[in-house]
Amino acid sequence: MSTSPWLSVVEEVQDALAEGRPVVALESTIVAHGMPFPANLDTAREVESIVRAQGAVPATVAVVDGKLQVGCTEDILHRLASEPGVSKVSRRDLPVVLAQGSLGATTVSGTLIGAGLAGIGVFVTGGIGGVHRGVADTWDISADLGELAQHNVAVVSAGAKSILDLPKTLEVLETQGITVLGYGTDEFPAFFTPRSGLAVAHRADSPDEVARAMHAKWGLGLTGGVLVANPVPDAAGFDAADATEEALAAAERQGVEGKALTPF
Fold this sequence. Notes:
Elements: E1 7-9, H1 11-18, E2 23-26, H2 29-33, H3 39-53, E3 57-64, E4 67-70, H4 74-82, E5 87-89, H5 94-100, E6 104-106, H6 108-118, E7 122-124, H7 135-138, H8 143-148, E8 154-157, H9 166-175, E9 179-183, E10 202-204, H10 207-219, E11 226-229, H11 241-254
Parallel strand pairs: 1-4, 2-3, 2-7, 5-6, 7-8, 8-11, 9-10, 9-11
Antiparallel strand pairs: 3-4, 3-6
Helix pairs in contact: 3-4
């Protein structure tokens, strides 16, 4: 674990890590920017409860009072869910939000930094960022991909966000040396739907297989993450292609871009 004065890890998480008990990192952008209050707070509590029910300690990551906070109290979760103007914090934003001492919700890349510094090996999120559509004109590529390549953290998600160019996202993941495992699937999931039509190079059918791949990669000294692409169940999935196209067209008309695009 890093001893940086900019890092604050709650005692419960510190104790679990010291004792070798499982800890799961969680992002906070979904709390501050993903849904309205109080549904966002209820969801944050529910996700942490699910992690606990499986025998692990949840560690929601955020920026609080000039510290990169790993593990959030009920009070901090409430602030993230209810206060206006919470910053959305990626790697580029982290130094400024820390220096200002303001409240920030970490994206996937910001959460990866917190997990990496704290020594947490598993992070769960809905979907990672990636290469945006029209990248030849915008060069809009999420910092999530670069951060995944720098930290020894396994990210479990339902693939990448559906608004992205998924084939190009997979190409960048390969270029960055990020191991992608289809969990119980040979196909890369597309966030809302378990199928994208894109094959994954490797498949794992049990937590043990995932853990052995993680152990082999990091034991060999290969720096960088493992993306565990865990599709939503068929019963919960739906095809959002038409709605996504409509939303992207509306965003273009309104000039919505960058980090404002995903919540839009």
